[in-house]
Amino acid sequence: MDLDWLMAIAAFGIGIVVGLTGMGGGALMTPVLVLFFGVQPLAAVSSDLVASAVMKPVGSFVHLRRGTVHLPLVRWLCAGSVPAAFCGVLVARALGDGEAVQDAIRVALGVALLIAAAGLTVRAYIRLVQRARVRDGRMGPDPVGPPRVTVRPLPTVLVGIVGGIVVGLTSVGSGSLIIIALMALYPGLRASELVGTDLLQAVPLVTSAALGHLLFGDFQLEVTAALLIGAIPGVWFGAHLSSRAPGGLVRRALAFVLLASALKLLGVPTVTAGVLLAAVLVASVPTWMLLRRRHGFPALARRDAYHAPAADVPEELSSRR
Q1: Pairing with 295, which of 208, 223, 245, 271 sits 20 to 30 Å away (CA)?
Q2: How far apart are CA 195 and CA 65, in angstroms?
Q3: pLDDT at residue number 302
Q4: Which residues of 99-130 are buried (b: 16+ CB within 10 A; e: fewer)?
Q5: What is the distance between the alpha carbons of residues 316 and 249, in angstroms, rounded to a whole number?
Q6: For residue 236, what are the contacts with CB-CB under 8 A and spacing of at least 6?
Q7: So what's the pLDDT on residue 310?
Q8: Hey, where are the domains in the chain?
Q9: Nearest Cα to 231, choosing from 47, 69, 35, 34?
Q10: pLDDT (0 to 100) of residue 285
Q11: Does residue 4 come out as left (phi exceeding 0), alpha (psi in the -120 to 50 range) or beta?
Q12: Could you tell me if 128 and 297 are in contact, meaning their C-beta atoms sit under 8 angstroms apart?
């Protein structure tokens, strides 16, 4: 087996982003494989999912030990997501062989990245509102013990089904799309509870999708090996950087990168994509500054803000402290 060390280095960089923010694994890894290393979309999805199935359990067990996982919610999510993820692979195979299926996966991946970028933006705003509530005394600190929310079975299963199909098709969604849906369905869940619940439900979800791709996808051992060799130390290094790096800023940059990748995968011409990205960048900076001022924060975040309660630090890492 010939290991691609350049791919491993790229995976190391993506692992750092995951360690800093808890997001961006599949959403970054798969498009990087397709756009920069020429890996066919189906092979990129298959290999990334198998690598994720190896790495996902680590963070979830930390949250399970700390009691920041809503187990009934995990069970209802998995009731929809686990079979749907496997079916997502079958949908990919039903699209056909050769260029037809590769093009379909490429378009599906581009759409999923657009949704993920939008989800990151929504998530950043929700966290800004939560910080304002904590500051004003309208929201107390994270409670000790399991979160107390009333599970809504039908919409939760539907979220699992949609998320599972998207993950099975594109490898994107287990850490970005589903958590946004959980925020909308269960606003009472705190940051650490959201991340812990999402991480644990992602283990059987990604495992199911990975099994489907091992059986019916285009799994490539050399690609998966390079991803694991690079990403595992990258995640460890990123986790140790998290206390000193502005995770919120990294997440916003990640949303911009996901948008750029989505436009490229959807075949948008380079000049048009550049104009769109420039317009988004020019509009987003003053808009975010205005929103911060509206909620009583300085337009530019100060360094010490990252050590305040519910600040823009990685939720899954702050829950370990």
Answers
A1: 245
A2: 14
A3: 58
A4: eebbebbbebbbbbbbbbbbbbbebbebbbeb
A5: 16
A6: 15, 19
A7: 37
A8: 59-219+247-318
A9: 47
A10: 85
A11: beta
A12: yes
